[in-house]
Design goal:
single chain, 137 residues, mainly alpha, two-stranded antiparallel sheet, 2 helices, Zinc ribbon domain-containing protein
C-alpha cells in the first residue's frame, strides 16, 4: 500500500476515534440532563401529591370544626380538638416535606432556595420573589 494512502487511512482512523469520543461525551452529557429532568419531574409529582394531601387535611379540619360547633361531633371517640390537632400535625409534616422538595428542585435548577418559604431564587437576589423575605441576614 502506498505510504500516502496509509497516512490518509491513519488520519481518518484518528479522526473517527476523536468523533466517536466526542459522541460518547455528548451521549453521557445528554444522559445526565435526562436524568436530572426525570428527577425534577418526580419531585414535582411528589410536590403535587403532598399539596393535595395538605388540602385534604385542611378540608377535614374544616369539616371537624363545623361538626364540633354544630354539636354534631360523635361522642365516645376521639375529641374534635384532638382530631384537629392531629390533622394540623400531619399538615406540618407535609409542609416540611414540601420545603425539602422545593429546596431540591432549586438545587437541580442551579438556583438557591429561600430559607423562609423554600421557593427558588436567583443567586444575586436580595429578597425572595415569592414571600419577600430577605435572603441574606
Amino acid at each position: 500500500m502506498d505510504s500516502s494512502v496509509k497516512r490518509f487511512l491513519t488520519e481518518m482512523a484518528d479522526r473517527a476515534a476523536a468523533v466517536a469520543e466526542g459522541a460518547k461525551d455528548a451521549v453521557a452529557g445528554a444522559g445526565k440532563v435526562v436524568g436530572e429532568k426525570k428527577d425534577a419531574a418526580m419531585l414535582r409529582l411528589d410536590l403535587l401529591r403532598l399539596r393535595s394531601e395538605c388540602e385534604s387535611r385542611f378540608s377535614e379540619i374544616g369539616r371537624t370544626f363545623y361538626l364540633m360547633n354544630a354539636g354534631a361531633w360523635p361522642s365516645g371517640g376521639e375529641t374534635a380538638e384532638h382530631r384537629i390537632e392531629s390533622l394540623l400535625g400531619e399538615v406540618g409534616e407535609r409542609e416540611m416535606q414540601v420545603s425539602d422538595i422545593l429546596r431540591r428542585l432549586s438545587e437541580l435548577s442551579g438556583k438557591s432556595a429561600c430559607p423562609s418559604c423554600g421557593k427558588p431564587c436567583d443567586a444575586g437576589a436580595a429578597y425572595c420573589p415569592a414571600c419577600g423575605k430577605p435572603l441574606k441576614g
